[in-house]
Protein 1
Amino acid sequence: MRKHLLTSTQALLERRPAVSPSTTALADHAHVSIGTVYRYFPDMDAIIDELRMAAVHNITTALSTSIARAMDQQPLDAMVTVVESLTSAFEKHAAVLRVSYTSDEAEFGLAWAEIEGPLRPLARIIPTRLRPDLDEAAIDDLVFIIMGATASLCSRIALLRPAQSDRAKLIAVSARMLLAAVEGA
C-alpha cells in the first residue's frame, strides 16, 4: 500500500508539475480512503520527502555510473557522458524535483550536496587526469566549481529548457563549457 501511495503521488505530480497534490486528491487517485493515506504517511510533505530521497538516490547512482563510464573516454566524450546522464536523471525525476525545489533554490543546493558528497572522489578523476599540473587544493576547488556548474546546467536543460531548444545541442555546449573550465583552470 505504501508503494501504491508513492506511485499514485508520482502520477499526480507528473500530471500537474510543480503542484503538490492534497491528501484528498491522492486518496481519490489511489482509490483508497483518506484514513489509509494517513495510516502510512502523516501528510503530503512526508510523501514528497520520501519521493525526493528516492530521486536523490537514483540520481546519485546514475551519476556515479556515468562518471565510471567516462573515465576511459576522451575528455569531450567524457563530459558529454556525464552531462547527458545527469540531465536524463533530472528529467526522469522532474516532477518530484519541481515540487520539491521550485520555491527554494537553497533547498536544491542542499539536495545537490547530498548527491555530490559521495561522488566527489569519482569527480576528481577526470580533472586530475586533464590537469596533472594542479595541486590537491586546486583540484578540490576545481571539482567544487565544476560539480556545481554541472548541476546547474543539467537541471536547466532538464527542467527549464524551452520547447524549441535542441536538447542534444544544449548538452554538447554544456560539455564543451565544462571541459573548457577544467582545461583553463
Note: The chain has a mean pLDDT of 89.
Protein 2
Amino acid sequence: MVPVQYYLLLSAAVFCIGVFGILTRRNALLFLMSVELLLNAANINLVAFSNFHGNLTGQTFSLFTLALAAAEVAVGIGIILVLYRNFKDVDVNEATTMRW
C-alpha cells in the first residue's frame, strides 16, 4: 500500500504548479487550466485521506468538486468567447478595458 505522504507530496506539487500558472500566465485558457489543477490537487487530498481513514466521505466531496469544476469550465469558456469576440485576443489584461 502506498503511504499517504506520497499522495500529499503529489497534491502539493500539482497545487504549486497551479498557483505558478495563475500568477505568471495572462492567457485566459491557461488561467482556467491552472484553476483546474488547483481543484484536482484538492481532490487528490480528499481521496487520499478518505482512503486513509477508511470511509467514503472524501470521495463523495471529490465528486462534488468535479461537478463544480465542470460548471466553472462552462462559465469560463463563455467568458473567454466573449473576450475573444470583443478584443480578438484572450489576454486577461485586456478585460480591464470592459469597465465603465
Note: The two ends are 57 Å apart (CA to CA).
